[in-house]
Amino acid sequence: MYKPEGWTNRGTSANSLIRRSALATGKVAPSSNRDEAMTTTRLAVIGAGLIGREHCALACTHPRVVLAGIADTALEAEHYAGQLGVPFFSDFETLLDEIRPDGVIIALPNALHEKAGLCCLERGIPSLIEKPIADTISSAKSLVEKSEATDVPILVGHHRRHSPDIREARRIVRSGELGDLVAVNGMWMADKPEAYFDAEWRRRRGGGPVLINLIHDIDCLRHIVGEIESVRAIASNRTRGFDVEDTVSVALRFENGALGSFLISDAVASPFTWEHTSGQALYFPHQPGDCYYFGGREASLAVPSMTVWRHDGTDKNWQDPFVHQRVNLDGSGAYQNQIDHFLAVISGDATPVVSARDAMLSLAATLAIDVAAREDRIVTIREMIA
Ligand SMILES: NC(=O)c1ccc[n+]([C@@H]2O[C@H](COP(=O)([O-])OP(=O)(O)OC[C@H]3O[C@@H](n4cnc5c(N)ncnc54)[C@H](O)[C@@H]3O)[C@@H](O)[C@H]2O)c1
Predict the structure, then answer these.
(1) Disulfide-capable partner of 48 in 26, 77, 136, 187 (CB 3.0 to 4.6 Å)?
(2) Summary mean pLDDT of the chain
(3) Domain with CATH 3.30.360.10 in the chain
């Protein structure tokens, strides 16, 4: 185990360093004074890569959190932990046994989620596992079964569910304000840079926009509309010419009878993604607009502009003028809300907004789209989890 100089003072040094850098990028709000009398939760982060470091930054700037340890196998991660003054471990099981954190954030490559998640469950430690819950349904199932058998919670990092626009969209659709939901439409179209594809796995099956990006949108649609019953899809690799798809058109049938369509492409120059339109994503410019449309018998909702459209007339049909209304949001941030929610899960004050079982169904629906495109047939979610 690596213990940087003065690591026992880690709370102060980590917090001041991270608060400066995170504030400089405008991604986190200044924390209030940690000296106030309040309960402190000791979190550990397993996997301090791209998103793991964002979690570290959030933990360090949170007034009720101490970043108690980092586990990673990479030398750069050890240096990073040293900069923060946080105890570092190259083996995550040793971290769990020595640090005994109150909660753990698992930000490892997908294939390692199952092992790390099970290690936390065995020790009775609640975890926030980054999305997808696992790389296969059978790994997801083992996490679901163990979490439910031990009653130790897993929260899965589908962070969009903590975003005010997605929360409000779910409330509006489920309140019946739109009337019976008839149809749903969505888009995720962006242009990934050439260098992104230097990593060989991103050119192969499983490394494309369906499993990397679409899983977020599928999770949002399930959360807002309800369970997906079956899918169809057509895929193309014409633009980039790799083995993996670059563009997919998806047809969705929801269990409540609504139909949906979704277009995804990583080869289109456009701002029509949730990342761009919501202003909530970490590495994307904010370009206000919409990426999801929910169509009901009485009204329709565009998200994330949160515009509700309805006819203004007595007959209320397509020839009547429209009125529209903007729904106000609370201005909070998805990642900040997610960590607050994780703290409530750890203290037993909340059950996970995205449980292991829930996240398994998002994985199943996303894998179903991959199967549907390759086998050119309707695929049900039921057969994916059988
Ligand atoms: N919710 C989001 O916004 C979001 C964004 C990006 C990635 N993710 C998810 O987060 C996870 C990590 O993605 P990333 O982009 O940060 O990957 P990454 O490759 O940047 O980071 C993974 C880290 O895990 C470490 N690691 C690998 N094997 C290890 C082991 N056996 N023990 C300890 N550490 C080990 C690596 O050294 C690396 O630092 C993935 O599941 C990904 O899907 C989520």
Answers:
(1) 77
(2) 91
(3) 161-331+363-385
286-323 per-position pLDDT tens digit: 999 999 999 999 999 999 999 999 998 777 789 899 99
Give CA–CA dist 225/180, Å, rounded.
11
pLDDT-derived band at 201 (thresholds 50, 70, 90) equals: confident
Q: Are 288 and 277 in contact (CB under 8 A)?
A: yes
> Percentage of the chain with pLDDT > 90?
85
Any ligand 1 atom below 6 A from CB of 73? yes
Which superfamily, per CATH, for 161-331+363-385? Dihydrodipicolinate Reductase; domain 2 (3.30.360.10)
CATH 3.40.50.720 domain locations along the chain = 7-158+336-353
Binding site membership of 47 for ligand 1 (Cβ less than 6 Å): yes
Distance CA 298, CA 310 (A): 7
| Beta bridge pairs of residue 69 | 44
The stretch 193-216 carries a mean pLDDT of: 93
- Residue 155 alpha carbon to ligand 1 centre in Å: 16
Tokens 């289109």, located at residue: 268
Instruction: Give 307 Cα–ligand 1 centroid separation in angstroms.
Output: 36
Please tell me the distance between residue 42's alpha carbon and the centre of ligand 1 in angstroms: 21
Q: Does the C-beta of 199 come closer than 6 Å to ligand 1?
A: no
The domain covering 7-158+336-353 belongs, at the CATH homologous superfamily level, to NAD(P)-binding Rossmann-like Domain (3.40.50.720)
**How high is the pLDDT of residue 313?**
74
d(CA 220, CA 358): 11
